[in-house]
Amino acid sequence: METAEAGAQAQDAMMQEVEVHLRIKRFDPDVDKRPHWEEYFVKLKPSDTVLTALHTVKWTIDGTLSFRRSCAHGVCGSDAMMINGVNRLGCVNLISDVGTSLVIEPVRGLPVIKDLVVDMEPFFAQYRSVMPYLINADDPGYTERRQSPEDRARFDDTTKCILCGACSTSCPVYWANDQYVGPAAIVNAHRFIFDSRDQARAERLEIMNQKSGVWRCRTAFNCTDACPRGIKVTEAIEEVKRAILYDRS
Ligand code: FES
Predict the structure, then answer these.
(1) Per residue in 78-99, pLDDT tens?
(2) E strands in the chain
(3) Does residue 91 belong to any structural domain of this protein?
(4) With a 6 A CB cut-off, is 79 part of the ligand 1 pocket?
(5) Are residues 138 and 243 in the same domain?
(6) Best mutation site among 55, 67, 76 for ligand 1, i.e. most ligand atoms within 8 A of its Cβ?
(7) pLDDT (mean) for 9-38
């Protein structure tokens, strides 16, 4: 009974509006020489998301605020941003998770187009460079390309990537070196390197062995901490490093 009462009280608390203070890094290339900070105060429920906070600012205070979003459910990967110093998705972090005082910035390491919108093309060029698709020249006939549950499990973790870029843009090596393909591209290379149906393992490992590849990783673990899907990014990078070494030995 007490537990039910406590549950009801917690639910009530999540429905009470609180004042949320947002400090957002703004940049409009048409008028600004450099980024600047702007502050907003909005009333929200603790169960609202950071994305709802941004929508509230945009729809009720300043329509010029720019940010990307689509699914609002942590699936499309559009709204990675830095929230209180950590890369996160705006749509899956609640005010009750991140607090009522928010500092919001664009992710680092990619050129800012406007406000929280960054140019993702360098990121997608790095992604394309690892050939992120199944390569198999054999004709499967009128059947699927089958694999055992164990073989499928081998790369299950890295299939979860939604290409939000939170991992790559939290990596200090990625910020400093535009030649590095970055954690997200390596995660997507891993997904095919360890797929028993794929026939381009050697070619992918060769790409990963170049100076733009895995050896640039300094194992900072920022990528693993930032991934909103909980992918063990650093572990995937280490597995690719080991595959390069053991395939050659
Ligand atoms: S809007 Fe799609 S992941 Fe957040």
Answers:
(1) 999 999 999 999 999 999 999 9
(2) 18-26, 36-44, 80-83, 86-89, 101-105, 112-114, 117-118
(3) yes
(4) yes
(5) yes
(6) 76
(7) 91
Q: Which domain holds residue 160?
A: 121-248
Question: What per-residue confidence (pLDDT) applies to 150?
Answer: 98
pLDDT in tens, 152-177: 999 999 999 999 999 999 999 999 99
Contacts of 162 (CB under 8 A, 6+ apart): 74, 75, 76, 77, 228, 229
pLDDT of res. 125: 98
158 with 229, same domain: the answer is yes
Does residue 50 have its Cβ closer than 6 Å to ligand 1? no
- Write out the two tokens for 34: 């450099």
**Mean pLDDT of the 102-107 span:** 98
Looking at residue 52, what is its pLDDT? 98
CATH code at 155? Answer: 1.10.1060.10
- How many domains does one find in the chain? 2
Final residue in a domain of this structure, among 118, 143, 158: 118
> Domain containing 62 — which CATH number?
3.10.20.30
CA dihedral (166, 168, 171, 176) positive or negative: negative
* Distance, first Cα to last Cα, the chain: 64
How far is ligand 1, taken at its centre, from the CA of residue 162, in Å?
A: 9
* Residue given tokens 């007490």 in the structure block: 2
* CA 200, 205, 207, 208 torsion-angle sign: positive
pTM for the predicted model, two decimal places? 0.92
* Cα of 32 vs its chain's centroid, Å: 28
The residue out of 94, 118, 142 marking a domain boundary is: 118
